[in-house]
Each structure stands twice: as structure tokens, then as C-alpha cells.
Amino acid sequence: MAVAGRVVSLAVQAALVTGTGRSCGYGVVPAAGALPTGAAFPYCVLYPLGGTSDGPPFGDADADARLLYQVTSIGQSAEQAEWMGDKVRSTLLGRAGAGAFAVPITAVGHIVIGRSLDNAEGVTAEAGVYSYVERFVLHVTTPGS
User: Fold this and answer.
1) CB distance 53 to 67 below 8 Å
2) How many CA atoms lie less than 13 Å away from 57 in the CB half-sphere?
3) CA 111, CA 135: separation in Å to the nearest integer?
4) CA 81/CA 16 separation, integer angstroms
5) Contact by Cβ (8 Å): 125, 78
6) Contact 74/131 with Cβ under 8 angstroms?
7) pLDDT digits (tens, 9 = 90+) for 35-61
8) pLDDT, averaged in runs of 10, over the chain (145 residues)
9) What span, in angstroms and rounded, lies between the C-alpha atoms of 13 and 72?
10) Rounded to the nearest 5°, which phi and psi values hold at 16?
11) Residues ≥6 apart with Cβ < 8 Å to 127
12) What pLDDT is recorded for position 63?
């Protein structure tokens, strides 16, 4: 079975909300009523950037993919945007010990087997709004049935 990008994206979005304690939009600013904090600063926006399917290795029934995500942290100051960026990075890359990630990414029918930071562009400002852009790579497998 192929990796369902949307399923993984929604799981990443849920992990970001849980780990940061702030709202996270999926390609857009979070709605005013989005939990836990609506569109109040700071927040983040998740952008799925696609990926590649590596296909299963010989003798393995699992389908593997490398998915790329951009997370843009938004704040009213450079400090606030960077703080949110730190929370995002800690959520997606932080460890709980013994190799386990502190915040799980639970995607139905898939297992996230690897995570890494691809690029961090740092803080930029436009019209009084500050953003901190980071890109992450997730390696995902779909257990064979």
C-alpha cells in the first residue's frame, strides 16, 4: 500500500498542536476558532511539500516514502517567531530517551520511522509580522498486510 500523504500531514499537524500547545494551520492561518489558541500569535502553518516514494526494499512488504514539510512559525516579534520555531523543532525532533521521540506522530496505517531537519531559514519580517521557516524530512513506512 502506498503512503497517504494527507494522512501523514494531518498527523504532523496534530503533533505540532500537541507539542507546541499552539494552533497550527494546514496551508493557511489557523481559523479563529481552531484549538487550542485560534489565530492568536504565535502560531504555525504546516505546508506539505511532497515527497518521493522509495518503494519497498527487496524482500520487504513495506512501502516507504520520504516526505518534506515546511513549518512556518508566525509571531508579532522576531523573538516570538523564533520561540515558536524552537517549540516546533523540539516537537518534531525532541527525544524522550532510548531513541524514542518525545511527541509521537500517529498516522493511521503508517509508521514514521525517521525525522530530520532539512533546512532552517531563520527569522524574516514583512509588514510587522515575523516568520521563522523550517523544513523537515519524515521517513514513513506502511506495514504490509
Assistant:
1) no
2) 1
3) 20
4) 15
5) yes
6) yes
7) 999 999 999 999 999 887 766 555 455
8) 88 98 98 96 97 62 81 97 98 91 95 94 95 96 74
9) 12
10) -65, -40
11) none
12) 56
pTM for this prediction: 0.92
SS3 sequence of the chain: CCCCHHHHHHHHHHHHHHHHCCCEEECCCCCCCCCCCCCCCCEEEEEEEEEEECCCCCCCCCEEEEEEEEEEEEECCHHHHHHHHHHHHHHHHCEEECCEECCCCCCCCCEEEEEEEEEEEEEEEECCEEEEEEEEEEEEEECCC
Which residue is listed with cell 518534506?
Answer: 68
pLDDT of res. 25: 98
Answer for the pair 62, 56: CB distance below 8 angstroms, yes or no.
Answer: yes
Partners of 137 in beta bridges:
68, 116
Residue 20 to residues 7, 14, 59, 61, Cα–Cα distance (Å): 20, 10, 39, 35
CA dist 113 and 124 (Å) reads 32
How many C-beta neighbours within 10 Å does residue 70 have?
16
